[in-house]
Amino acid sequence: LMERKTHVKINRKEVMLAKLRKSCSCTPKKLKNFVMNFLPVLQWLPKYQCKEYIWGDVMSGLVIGIILVPQAIAYSLLAGLKPIYSLYTSFFANIIYFLMGTSRHVSVGIFSLISLMVGQVVDRELLLAGFDLNDDAPPALGDSSLQNDSQSNTTAFNLTIAGMNAECGKECYAIGIATALTFVAGVYQVLMGIFRLGFVSMYLSESVLDGFATGASLTILTAQVKYLIGIKIPRSQGHGMLVITWINIFRNITHANLCDVITSAICIVVLVTAKELGDRYKHKLKFPLPTELVVIVVATLVSHYGKLNEVYASSVSGAIPTGFIPPKVPHFNLMLRVAVDALPLAIVSFVFTVSLSEMCAKKYAYTIRANQEMFAVGFCNIIPSFFHSFATSAALAKTLVKTSTGCQTQVSGVISAMVVLLVLLFLAPLFYSLQKCVLACIIIVSLRGALRKFRDVPARYHVNKVDTLVWVITMSASALISTEIGLLVGIVFSMLCIIVRTQRPRTALLGQIQDTSFYEDDLEYENLYSVPKVKIFRFEAPLYYANRNYFLKSLYRLTNLDPNLEAARRKKYEKKEKQHLKKGDHTTANGLGIGENTLQLVPKQIDFQTLVVDCSSISFLDTTGVNTLKEILKDYKDLNISVLLACCNPSVIDTLKRGGYFGENLANMHEMLFYSIHNAVQFAKDQK
After folding, report:
1. pLDDT, average across residues 495-519
2. What's the protein's topology in the membrane (predicted)?
């Protein structure tokens, strides 16, 4: 016999006050723990096993640094910023995550998807400020010859309204928008960490994230096509950017630069071939081939000595300054303009970082702290925003390379930062002649993984049709409308799918597996034994206000009995019978006897006397759910049919007690509630 434990009631007010007193108290030990937890590097660095770890960390750090430099320069095209800012971002992100991150293997830095989201906001604000989005347009306000131009005046007016100095040109305003956006996104992430809102990431399912990444990859690919073929078209903004861009590309295809087309074709063939060979023979290679770096070096040399910019008008990266620009506080007025845009950026950045951190932690058998990861990513955005950097996140491709090259700790991140620093201080001007089409090729080839998701659609559809639909909807919205709206559409649609699943769940009548005490769906399994005079109904979802009607309809349909209609028939029959008996007439108006009339009003005999409701899949009940069960209990009782509940979990039982389902004193509870279906069936047989 099972009896419920008596739980001691907890005074929630006292518990909250105790937690508040504990959190507000300050002792040396607590302060030390806070600092150690806030800067995890203080915990693991003193225990660093130099002989065992240093070689793997140095190798992976050098490889990532070599990959990072060309990617950083390339992704500046996505962000709509100069390459120097991408290098700043890569440098500071690696240093800060080294200090604050809890994952040993994640590579945090510049990421194509985040760069795209930053670039879309930057382009929009530049357009609103009156700047020309053409990459080769001269800075409007810095040139004195343009001071009287109407375009410059418009720009000056808009900049003044935005709170920026009127002397700030296009490049200055663009990085101002990017740093303001990055700062606000970092603040959001830190606030989410303080209030422990990491659970928000649970609403981004794998299908939503994959669809979002694939849709954004199509947008990135589209944005790079103009660089591949060397045409000058305006950078499209707003909804439907992908379609508008492709229309502009086909309109201007006749103006393609032959030099850029040939260079792009050669670079893509080399990069794809190297990637495919690297994937095929990765078990034999100690570290991946630095193909991007080789391509960039060779392309820069060819462009420089072949004078491709002067002779063939091929677009090049231009001057990249060395050293660091003095730090600057992000402008508050610009933060207000981009506050809404920063929210999806903060969530996407955090989700990608935590999911990759958890993947690495599971693979290498250690734990991470999701809340600390939120702080780490937040400060990877807040602090660098003062140093002309933009938003960062963990990147899957670089993380996989990092783990495959022997990375042991985040010391490898410091090595990568040193490689970037070397480029920042000495080597950056050497990339002046690098063609933009080469950078576009690097970006497009890096999207292979996301674009390959299209090949997985049939397998995904075979596993789960609803998840495939979520992926398609999210991908389509992200590509055809905008990335932010695509993410929102994906989240809303996936939640609607869950609601619909609970609104119209599976229902079944159960039969007994012969010579056992187990019961299963008689539509799914053969040779099940139907218990005489007993119907066993299963409802595979919580019972709440949204699926109440479906519960009742399914129950009436499967049992082939609506108690309300049956009760109405009986009342109608009894009323007519009384009328005829009063008149002393034993026949009806149409000449039928009363016995024959009974067959018309009550068309069939009820074939069961007990209804057993299998509640094993009902995880919770709301007030409507309790009232629904009370309603069927009363309606079936009027027809002399017993209703028994089986396999209820403790929370459902408590809800039924509070709702008065078992009566005031719970006197009949042992005759209404059973711990197994078989017990309920045996009770029904004994009652007969």
Report:
1. 92
2. Multi-pass membrane protein
Determine the structural domain holding residue 276 and report its residue range: 52-133+169-500
Instruction: Mark whether 455 and 538 lie in a shared domain.
Output: no
- Alpha-carbon gap, residue 512 to 167, rounded angstroms: 83
Give the mean model confidence (pLDDT) for residues 334-338.
Answer: 93
- Position 578 confidence tier, pLDDT thresholds 50, 70, 90: confident
Q: What 8-state DSSP symbol labels residue 613?
A: E
Do 328 and 386 contact (CB within 8 A), yes or no?
yes
Query: Between vectors from CA 235 to CA 229 and to CA 237, what angle results, nearest 5°?
Result: 145
For residue 330, what is the DSSP state? P
At 169 the three-state DSSP class reads: coil
User: What digits encode the pLDDT tens for the residues 135-182?
Assistant: 554 443 333 333 333 343 344 434 444 445 445 788 899 999 999 999
Structure tokens belonging to residue 543: 């019972």
Element (H, E) at 537: strand 533-539
Question: In the structure encoding, which two tokens stand for residue 6, read together?
Answer: 């008596």
Pairing status of strand 528-529 against strand 519-521: unpaired
pLDDT digits (tens, 9 = 90+) for 455-501: 989 999 999 999 999 999 999 999 998 888 898 999 999 999 999 98
The Cα 139–Cα 132 span in angstroms is 9
Q: How far, in Å, CA of 101 to CA of 657, rounded?
A: 48
Which one, of 206, 219, 104, 241, lies nearest residue 471 by Cα?
A: 206
Q: Cα angle vertex 244, ends 129, 390, to 5°?
A: 45
Same structural domain for residues 614 and 489?
Answer: no
> What angle is formed at CA 413 by the lines to CA 410 and CA 416, rounded to 5 degrees?
155
* Dist CA 540 CA 614 (whole Å): 9
* Average pLDDT for 506-535: 92
Any domain includes 9: no
| pLDDT band at residue 38 using 50, 70 and 90 as cut-offs | very high
DSSP string, 591-602: S-BHHHHHHHHS
Q: What is the pLDDT of residue 603?
A: 45
Residue ending a domain, among 473, 500, 527, is 500
pLDDT at 118 over 70: yes
Both 451 and 524 in a single domain? no
Q: Is residue 231 part of a domain?
A: yes
Backbone angles phi, psi at 513, to 5 degrees: -75, 120
CATH of the domain at 626: 3.30.750.24
**Tokens matching residue 356:** 């990759």
DSSP H helices in 230-307: 241-251, 258-280, 291-306
Model pLDDT, residue 560:
92
- Are 293 and 359 within one domain? yes
Residue whose token pair is 């809340």: 371
Task: Look at 583 and 412; give whichever has higher pLDDT.
Answer: 412
Which of 500, 527, 547 delimits the end of a domain? 500
The neighbouring-strand residues paired with 561 are none
User: Is there a single domain that holds both residue 443 and residue 553?
Assistant: no
One domain, residues 496 and 513: no
8-state DSSP, 675: S
Nearest CA to 536 among 523, 549, 547? 523
